[in-house]
Amino acid sequence: MKWNAELYDQKHAFVFQYGESVMELLDVQPGERILDLGCGTGYLTQQISELDADVVGIDYSPEMIQKARQSYPEVSFSVADASKFSFTEPFDAVFSNAALHWVKDHDAMMKCVYHSLKPGGRFVAEMGGKGNVLQLITATKQVLLKHGFAKQAETMIWRFPSLGEYTSELENHGFRVTFAAHFDRPTALQDGDQGVAKWIAMFGEQYFEGVPSNQKQQMLQEITELLRPHYYREGQWFSDYVRLRFTAVKQL
Ligand code: BEZ
Asked: Ligand 1 centre and the CA of 252: distance in Å?
């Protein structure tokens, strides 16, 4: 998937603004070595570096890393796959905000995180949890099916695990989960009645592979109308975000 890093920065700032509260959970200490996994355009990586940490940001998308380097030339960034990375010098903590639900191979990712941490090092993350954007996914599938795009309706872009399944996986990979929470966080969308379509254009393009663009515009409007009763309140659109947040400590 090719990311539009400019648009991401302008229109989806909420992704990293909310991330600031996950950073409180990270509780960076000066001098710590931190990896920001799935750093996107680098806003939170830069925030971590301002706390006098030695931080490295990695992301799968070259477009995101190019933008991050342009915006924060003093911070270290590189393109890397969350399921295939390794570093010679271990980290005190691995941090991740709103990225892990894009990872395909969580088993490989957890192994990489484990091996990149010092003993006692922490893995602190927030991702979409079970039920995340369920209304949006349901409406999108319904409209795809109605228009005869059965194959696209089966598309699985993200993984949104439950607290129970994910904390068990972390334990099976050698972590002790010291904190975990699964909670609703309705999240404001920008651009009024165009907000749903813009969100899907940014994050859910894969649902529309092979759909002619004029038909896609019509379908996006239909999805918006299906979501209106669930997403629109007092002049503002909100998406049904559900978060999974955890701290997991590397055991020997
Ligand atoms: C999320 O942060 O929950 C999310 C962001 C983009 C696509 C899917 C989920």
From this structure: 33
